[in-house]
Write a structure and sequence with these properties.
The chain starts with a helix and ends with a helix. Helices cover 77% and strands 0% of the residues. It has helices at 3-25, 31-45, 54-69, 74-81, 84-108, 114-124, 129-138, 143-167, 185-204, 210-224, 234-249, 254-258, 261-289, 293-300, 305-315, 319-351. It is globular, with a radius of gyration of 20 Å. The chain is mostly helical. Helix 3 crosses helix 9 (185-204), helix 3 packs across helix 15 and helix 8 crosses helix 13.
Length: 352
């Protein structure tokens, strides 16, 4: 690594840490995520050489995966098993939202060619950004627009929902304490080693999002079996959130700010519509399933696993249920998106 790059990385992390501290002082929701995310994003779009290391992002996701897995005690697992119908409804809702969002993007961009439709479809899918970029490129879509759409969607969801919930006083209303209550250094080291092993196994198998899902799976199995090694220190959780916030912020560059204003405007409009409609859907599903509607909103919102689960953790809003919604949705949407696109394009050809 060149000295200049090392200096840029150190400066970015230093600025992000100060931003997180200031956001915390002003009692902003998710200060250790939003502070670094917004500050680095603004600096990046202004042309500042903000940088990070993929290793830091991976480490942050690993820590978050472990933190989430600690909530899945045997009692919680029994509760979640009874929520299968609600989880299925959440998956169906995500697929419907993605389809409607695709129709909006396709209409706004006057999609005619296969490339236009692939770009709109994989930009609209409510799935992991990197996975949708890969699938979109494989089907002939424009990866720059797909990446920009997912970056903007995640940014808006991470901003609007936590700030809206804090403004409405909706936090600490669905408490689920993590299983372990005591910090043990030896136990934490074992958690880290086992979580890393799970992440590396998923990475070796070329499964998506291995750093979160691998660590989450290993810790979930341990906690669900009644094995309590250690709790995760708050300082480590904050550092993980900072790394994830910085990684998200570095996606925003001057090229992003200049790219297709109408496209980004349509993505923003569609994201706001999805948040609003998800609020109504969450209230209906929560009423039917006997859950708190805010927990269901976090679980069915068009955000990502890490971001929405962090929101649930920091704001004490039903972490296991939110995580279960997002993990099941993530897997099914990832498996279903490409076949659904091919089926849609086949129907379009028949209709023509």
């Amino acid at each position: 690594m060149s000295p200049s790059r090392s200096i840029c990385i150190a400066a970015t992390l230093g600025i992000a840490t100060v931003a997180a501290w200031l956001f915390a002082r002003f009692h902003t929701p998710l200060p250790w995520t939003l502070g670094p995310l917004l500050t680095v994003a603004v600096l990046g779009m202004l042309g500042a050489p903000v940088r990070t290391l993929p290793l830091l992002r991976d480490a942050g996701q690993l820590a978050i995966g472990i933190a989430l897995g600690l909530y899945f005690t045997p009692n919680v697992l029994r509760t979640i098993a009874s929520l299968a119908p609600a989880l299925a409804a959440g998956i169906a809702w995500a697929l419907l939202l993605g389809y409607l969002f695709y129709r909006l993007l396709a209409a706004a961009s006057c999609a005619e060619t296969p490339q236009d439709h692939a770009t709109a479809f994989f930009s609209a899918a409510i799935g992991g950004a990197s996975e949708m970029v890969v699938l979109g490129e494989r089907h002939g879509g424009r990866i720059d627009r797909i990446a920009a759409a997912h970056s903007l969607r995640v940014l808006l969801v991470v901003l609007v929902i936590p700030i809206g919930l804090q403004w409405a006083g909706l936090r600490g209303i669905d408490l689920t304490p993590p299983g372990p209550e005591q910090f043990r250094l030896g136990g934490l080291l074992w958690l880290g080693a086992l979580g890393l092993a799970g992440a590396l196994l998923l990475r070796w198998l070329r499964l998506p999002n291995p750093w979160v899902l691998g660590a989450l799976t290993v810790t979930l199995v341990l906690t669900g079996s009644g094995i309590e090694l250690s709790t995760l220190p708050k300082e480590l959780s904050n550092a993980a959130q900072l790394c994830i916030g910085v990684a998200l912020g570095t996606r925003f560059t001057p090229a992003f700010a200049r790219s297709a204003p109408r496209w980004l405007g349509t993505v923003a409009l569609g994201t706001f519509c999805m948040i609003a409609s998800s609020t109504g859907f969450a209230w209906l599903l929560a009423t039917a399933a006997g859950l708190h509607w805010v927990t269901v909103l976090l679980g069915t919102s068009p955000g990502g696993i890490a971001e929405m689960s962090i929101t649930a953790k920091v704001m004490q809003l039903g972490v296991p249920v939110v995580t279960a919604f997002h993990v099941t949705r993530y897997v099914i949407v990832l498996l279903a998106t490409a076949p659904l696109y091919r089926g849609l394009m086949a129907r379009k050809r028949i209709a023509e």
